[in-house]
Amino acid sequence: MTERGWSGHAEAGGSAADEVAEICSDLIRIDTTNEGQGRGRPERPAAEHVAALLDEVGVTPTIVESAPGRSSVLARITGTEPSRPAFLMHGHLDVVPADPADWAVNPFSGEVRDGNVWGRGAVDMKGSVAMMLAVVRRRMREGRLTGGDLVLAFLADEESTGDFGSRHVVERHRDFLTGCTEAISESGGFSVTADGGERIYPIATGERGTAWMNLTVRGVAGHGSKPPKDNPVAELSHAISRLAAYEWPVRLTPAVRALLDGLARALGTALDHDRLDAEVRRLGAIGRLFESTIRNSANPTVLEAGYKVNVIPGQATAQVDGRFLPGTGQEFLETVERLLGPEVTREFINFEEAAAADARGPTFAALADAIRAEDPQAHPVPYVMSGGTDGKSFARLGISGFGFAPLMLPPDLDYFGMFHGVDERVPVEGLKFGTRVLDRFLDTR
After folding, report:
1. Edge-to-edge order in the sheet of strand 345-352
2. Could you tell me where the DSSP H helices lie in 202-290?
3. From CA 220, how far away is CA 320, in angstroms rounded?
4. How far is the C-alpha of 275 from the C-alpha of 198, rounded, in Å?
5. What is the largest CA-CA distance in the chain?
6. Three-state DSSP class for 101?
7. Where are the alpha helices (H) located in 315-427, listed in sequence order?
8. Can you tell me the distance from the alpha carbon of 318 to that of 367, in angstroms, rounded to the nearest whole number?
9. 298 alpha-carbon distance from chain centroid
């Protein structure tokens, strides 16, 4: 790793690089735990903090609420060329739960230790929000505006369905998004170091569709000592077992093929498309970039039934996290129905189509160029996210989203393990790197 890879252009980062870690720490200290189903800590305090940071540099923020305390921050900065499309940068303010007993530091301390900012949201995604804020603040202080309007959205409820955040904004406040055609947000632009030392930077150009399902089986309640007539616990268990054991076939979408081709060029090695599971194992961390996006998945996550050991209940329920690749939604649902069988009733908790952006267009090229300018050894490649983001909500308005929260990371940091994991942390130097990259990219808007 070159020295410039960590600290080049530090003087160009200016105050953005200087304050990004502090902003990240401050946001982490505001507990915005989202437990789902409307439960958890409200985002309002974080939204007010973000609004104050924008207001301080002359950006007029608007706080919108979908329910008491469920707050998002919207702002639109007028550009210098009204004829150019507006551009959206968005991030979320909520985080998943964290148990302090499991962590080496308090997950809501925002402590800086060993060159890292620690805490829930450091990676997902208060660190990324901090980079956006730091860059916007610097550019406003210096009077450097984008060509088209720059739209900012810092949102509630991404870690659940988005009903209190991005969906609310799209439905009730879409005037802020007028003229937006493209966007950037989380889950892309980070470095993954191959065994040979190559630094791969996956830039997300799509994400799998979401099919969160609630499953119900109804039967005949009765005494646990008698022969069962229709035991819903047993029926649902059999169905869940079939679903969990199913080996989904490989489906190579165009975006994943582009990723595989890019990896092959960067690594100087051929990838066997007929043995991709073996390639995942061979490539280690690099293989994790595509292991979850070469097939659909349906993972049982919640199972509930019964209330007493000697009573057969009349109903059993389960929840399943389903994900499907672009263009495979119908195949996915038909397979799920076949595996579950006729006794299982399926209802959607959340259903969103797979989103995609153009990996061959000028915006992807500008994102890749911004990374290469800060790390000449970078190998940017298109990437499909295994999970989902608020980008799906904005896609409903025709806004194409790229996953781009740039970070240069040490080779031994398990970045994928940071998402929703224990001891989540992000390197301070990585955050500084990201502010420089984002600043360069915004010069092209």
Report:
1. 297-305, 315-324, 209-218, 345-352
2. 232-245, 254-267, 276-283
3. 24
4. 23
5. 78
6. helix
7. 329-340, 362-374, 391-395, 415-418
8. 41
9. 18
Q: What is the dihedral of CA 327, 329, 334, 337, to 10 degrees?
A: 160
* Cα(343)–Cα(418) distance, integer angstroms: 39
- What would the two tokens of residue 295 be? 């097939």
Structure tokens at 308: 């007493």
**How many CA atoms, within 13 angstroms, populate the side-chain half-sphere of residue 430?**
24
If you write DSSP's letter for every residue of 399-444 in order, what string do you get?
-EEEE---B---TT--HHHHTT-TT-EEEHHHHHHHHHHHHHHHTT
Distances (CA, A) of 36 to 94, 158, 412, 436: 11, 10, 32, 34
Residue 83: partners with Cβ closer than 8 Å, 6 or more residues away: none
Q: Is 283 exposed, middle or buried (0-12, 13-18, 19+ CB in 10 A)?
A: buried
Instruction: Report cis status (omega within 30 of 0) of the bond before 125.
Output: yes
The rounded distance, in Å, linking the Cα atoms of 115 and 118 is 9
Tell me the C-alpha distance between 64 and 74, whole Å.
Answer: 8
List the structure tokens of 60. 């007029």
Q: Rounded to an integer, what distance in angstroms lies between the CA atom of residue 393 and that of residue 167?
A: 6
The phi and psi torsions of 371 (rounded to 5 degrees) equal -70, -45
Rounded (10°) CA dihedral 288, 291, 293, 294:
150
- Rounded to 5 degrees, φ, ψ at 360 are -110, 5
pLDDT at 386: 85
Q: Identify the segments of the chain with pLDDT beneath 50.
A: 1-13
Pairing of strands 150-155, 86-92: parallel
| Contact present, 176 and 292 (Cβ < 8 Å) | no
Kindly give, in sequence order, each residue whose CB lies less than 8 Å from that of residue 267, ignoring residues fewer than 6 positions away.
Answer: 194, 196, 198, 283, 286
Decide: 234 and 228 in contact? Cβ < 8 Å. Answer: yes
Task: Determine the pLDDT at residue 327.
Answer: 86
Check residue 15 and give its pLDDT.
Answer: 63
Distance CA 413, CA 274 (A): 30
87-96 pLDDT per residue, tens: 999 999 999 9
Check the CA dihedral 296-286-435-48 and report its sign.
positive
pLDDT of residue 225: 84
**Rounded CA separation 237/303 (Å):** 9
